[in-house]
Amino acid sequence: MRAPSRLGRALLALALTAPALLLATTSAQAAPAPLVGLGSGRCLDVTGNSSANGAQLQIWDCTGDANQGWEFSSSGELRVFNGAKCLDVPNGSTTAGTRLAIWDCNGGANQKFRLNSNGSITATQSGLCLDVDNQATANGTAVNTWNCNGQANQQWRAGTGPGPDPVCSVNPVTPNPTPQARKLLCYVYSQYGNHILSGQQESTWIGGPDHEINHIRNNTGKYPAIRALDFGDSKDLAPRAIAWWQAGGIPMIGYHMGAPTKPDTYDGTKIRVSINAVLTPGTAEYRSFTDRLDQAAAMLQQLENAGAAVIWRPFHEAGGTWFWWSMEGGGQYNRLWNFMFDYFTRVKGLNNLVWLHGYNGEPQSSFYPGKSVVDIGGADTYAGSGNYDPLNAMYNSVRTIVGPTLPIALHENGPIPDPDRLQSTGTRWVLFGTWHGNHLTQENSTSHLQKVYNHSYVVTRDELPNLK
C-alpha cells in the first residue's frame, strides 16, 4: 500500500480534531482527491476543465474529473491535473479578493499553501485563505483569497469520488438507506449552522398546488429548496414531489392523519382516540391505522421507485394537545412514532426516508422518541404577521433535548425569521417551512421575501447540489 500523501496525512490529523460529520477520511487517503467546500457541498474546480495557464478556480458539483483532483506536494504546492499544474495566486498578489488560478509549477512563494486544523487552506505568501466568494453555494461561484475568518465558505474536506458529499460519516436512522437518502442527510448536516434551507408548504385549493411556489418565484426570482406537501391534504401528491426532486429540489412530506376510524381529514386529527386500541392488533382502530399507513407507504414507495429521497415529517407538533397523537402524553406518542418507524422501514421496506421529528412551540422531552429513530429535530410556531424574530428560545429548547449535533428545523412558520438576525443570535435552524396561503402572502412582506430569498445565508433550489 502506498504511503499517504501529505494531503492524506494532514486530513487524517484533521479527522482526529474536527467533528466527524465535517471531515471524514481513510487512514491512507489516496491522492489526488477532491476538496469539498463545507459551506456548499461542492468541489474546488478548475473552470471548464481547462489545464491552460491562468484557468480560474470555482466551485462545482463534484464529478471525479481530473480538474477536481488535488494533492499537496512535499513542498507545499497544491497540485491538480495529476500533478501537472499548481494552484497559483496570480502575480503574487497579497490583496484580499484575488481570483485564484492554475499555472505551471515553478516553486514560487505564490504557489505555496498550508492546510490548517480547522479545514481552511492558507496561501502562505499573503496569509489569506481560500474563500468561496460571498459565502455563495451556486455552481460557478469564484474561489478567491480572503482574510481568514473560520467560516464554512473557507473550510474544505477531502472527498473520494463524485457527488455533493463524497465522504460523510452520517447515516440515516433508516436501515439500509438509499444513496439519495444518505446524500440528503449528509447535505443537511453540512448546512447546519452554515446556512438555512428555504421551504414552502403547498396548498391545493388556492389557485392550484403551485400557488405559493409561484408567489415566491414571481416576487423573488427564486424557488424554495424544499417543497412541503401533506398526504392528509392531497392523496395524489406523489407526481408533484417526484417532479420537484427531478428539478433539483427536496420534497418534505407530512401527514395530518385523521384519528383511526374517524375521517382522514384535518377535522379528524382533532378527535380523541385510544392509542392502546390503535396499537392493538385485531381492533377496528388498528385496522384503520395500518390501512392509512399502507396508503402513505405506497405513496412514499412511488418516490423511492423514482430515485427520490424524502424528508418525512409525521406526527408533527408533538406535545400539542390539539392532535390525537399527542393527547395521551409522551409515552403513548412515542409508541406511535416507533410503530410507524418499524412498519415503514421493516414491514414496508422503505429506505428513502429522512425522519424529521417536529415539536410544537413548547418542546417537551417526554415527547422525544430518541436519536435512534430521528434524523432531524424541530419545532414550530407562528410569530404573527411581520414578526421576523429568529425564535432563539424555541431553538435552544429543542437543542437542549436533542443535543448539539442533531440538525434542528423550523418545520412550520408564518413569518420567515430574518437571516441577519439568525446569524447574529446563533439561531441555527437548518430549514424553514413557511405555511401556505396567507401565512406566506400576508405575513411576509414582498420586500422581506426578496431579502430572504436573495440572502447569502439562505439556500434556494438553484443552489442545491446534485443529490440524485
How would you characterize this protein structure?
With 468 residues, the protein is an alpha/beta fold. It has two domains: 6-158, Trefoil (Acidic Fibroblast Growth Factor, subunit A); 179-463, TIM Barrel (Alpha-Beta Barrel), CATH 3.20.20.80. It is built from eleven helices and 22 strands. The chain has a five-stranded parallel β-sheet with strand order 14-15-16-17-18, sandwiched between helices. A four-stranded antiparallel β-sheet has the order 4-5-6-7. Helix 4 (238-246) packs parallel to helix 6. The radius of gyration is 24 Å and the shape is elongated. Residues 1-30 and 161-166 have low confidence and may be disordered. Residues 179-462 form the GH26 domain. Belongs to the glycosyl hydrolase 26 family. This is GH26 domain-containing protein. It holds the Pfam family Ricin_B_lectin. Residues 1-30 form the signal peptide.
Instruction: Quickly give the structural class.
Output: alpha/beta
Question: Which of globular, elongated, flat, extended, rod-shaped describes the shape?
Answer: elongated
| Cα-atom radius of gyration | 24 Å
Low-pLDDT sequence parts: 1-30, 161-166
Strand content: 15-25%
Largest sheet: 5 strands, parallel
- CATH architecture of the largest domain, by name, is Alpha-Beta Barrel
Question: Within the largest sheet, what's the order of strands?
Answer: 14-15-16-17-18
Number of strands: 22
- pLDDT averaged residue by residue: 90
Task: Using the coordinates above, name the CATH class of the largest domain.
Answer: Alpha Beta
Tell me the distance between the termini: 33 Å
* Number of helical regions: 11
Can you tell me the number of structural domains?
Answer: 2
CATH topology tier name of the largest domain:
TIM Barrel
Would you identify the CATH H-level superfamily of the largest domain?
Glycosidases
Q: How much helix, percentage-wise, in residues? A: 25-40%
InterPro entries: GH, GH26_dom, Glyco_hydro_26, Ricin_B-like_lectins, Ricin_B_lectin
Domain GH26: 179-462
Keywords: Glycosidase, Hydrolase, Signal
Family: Belongs to the glycosyl hydrolase 26 family.
